[in-house]
Amino acid sequence: MQTALITILYLAELPYLFLMVMVVVGALRRQRVGRTSATPSVSVILPARDEGPTLPRTLASLAAQRYSGRLEFVVVDDRSRDDTREVIERFAASDERFKLVSVQRPSRRLAPKVNAVDHGIRASSGELIVATDADCVHDPNWVAGMASYFVDDVVMVAGYVSTSRPGEARTLLQRFESVDWFTLMLVSRSLTRFGLKYASSANNLAYRRSAFDAVGGFGAAGRAPSGDEDLLTQKLGALPGARLAFADALECRVVTTGVKTAPDLVRQRRRWVSRYHHVLHYHLGFLAGIAVLGLQSVLLTAAALLSLLVPGILPWVLGVWGVKVAIEFVGMGVGTRQWGRRDLWGFTTLWWSLLHPLFIALAVIGSFLKPSAWHAGADGYRTRFFQRRLREFRRRVKEGAVRP
């Protein structure tokens, strides 16, 4: 039994360690990123639902944008029950660049967040679509910086997101969340440097309208909760000759509001993991990476608990945990030096790395025990998907294209 437990643990852990080495190599990999001085027209799309308390600060940071090209801000009120609409109207009345769009009813075809973004896109006209969220603060040159990455064959630009600026993360929770977001950004950039177009963050994302139209918009993937970020990234990345760029310049960085409590952070990640239950349309390589992260976290946590009953496996658990911590520590050391976030390195990185498997295990297990409500039910989504495929198959059989 002891040997079997150790074997299972290492079989799950080795792929994760390989991925972490890949992230470190990607961080060290030299890659020349082109920039352009062109100023295409830009439409910033911002969906908001019950965001009255945070929205004024976000809209103020958008109003302060310095961009010489044509710029519009399309703010979508997604059936808010607070003063979100009034906040948007005030900004629209004082700045003609702001436009209010209202979602009157939920869509049967798109998830709510995706539906709100889709409403904004259809009401806009910019050559570049830049997406963000209602709890973010932007540098005055954010739009100009994101637009500058659209050279030649670049169809999408993924931006850097953090929950704190250098030196702002003071409490243990703020430090943990800041490190966690930082590692997500490191992974995203490394994937991009290896030409893997899998993931992005919806609160700092830009893409060409022509590319969006070329893939048919959100399409069927828009029914899934992350259709406006990960799935869209994978759709646009599949275009022939398409390239994705990661914008880590200072002016391109967006600060999003952090959570208030540790349970809130676990619930947030549980909600994120729940969206990966909607496996349709996701790239298999991306799903494999997500599965590796979740499985190794659950097994490593379980092995640590089992070592209380089976002491013989403890050295093996500590050994693999130590290797994991060492690789993550090195990777964070490289990343924090490159991005000027040394405040997140050292002891903060060490205890984050030690607690991270338990944190992810809680999110993964919780996502199955109590899936988060995305208002885009997985059952209905899958049912409609397969019903559509069945209708297409029957049609082809009737037309003689396929033999029954």
Task: Report on this structure.
The radius of gyration is 22 Å and the shape is globular. The protein has helices at 2-28, 55-63, 84-94, 112-122, 142-147, 172-193, 209-214, 230-237, 262-275, 284-306, 314-338, 347-369, 378-399, and strands spanning 42-48, 71-78, 98-103, 128-131, 136-138, 154-159, 161-162, 205-208, 243-247, 254-256. α1 (2-28) packs across α6 (172-193), α1 packs parallel to α11 and α10 crosses α12 (347-369). The longest helix has 27 residues, at 2-28. By secondary structure, the chain is α/β, with parallel strands linked by helices. The chain contains 13 helices and ten strands. It has a seven-stranded mixed sheet, sandwiched between helices. It has a three-stranded mixed sheet with strand order 5-10-7. The model is unreliable at 375-379 (pLDDT under 50).
Strand percent estimate = 5-15%
Q: Roughly what is the average pLDDT, rounded to an integer? A: 91
Q: Largest sheet at a glance?
A: 7 strands, mixed
What spatial form do the alpha-carbon principal axes imply?
globular
First and last CA, distance: 49 Å
Q: Would you count the extended β strands for me?
A: 10
Structural class of the secondary elements?
Answer: alpha/beta
User: What percent of the residues sit in helical stretches (DSSP H or I)?
Assistant: 40-55%
Walk across the major sheet and give the strand order. 3-2-1-4-8-6-9
Helix-strand string: HEHEHEHEEHEEHEHHEEHHHHH
Low-pLDDT segments, ≥5 res: 375-379
Radius of gyration: 22 Å
How many alpha or pi helices? 13
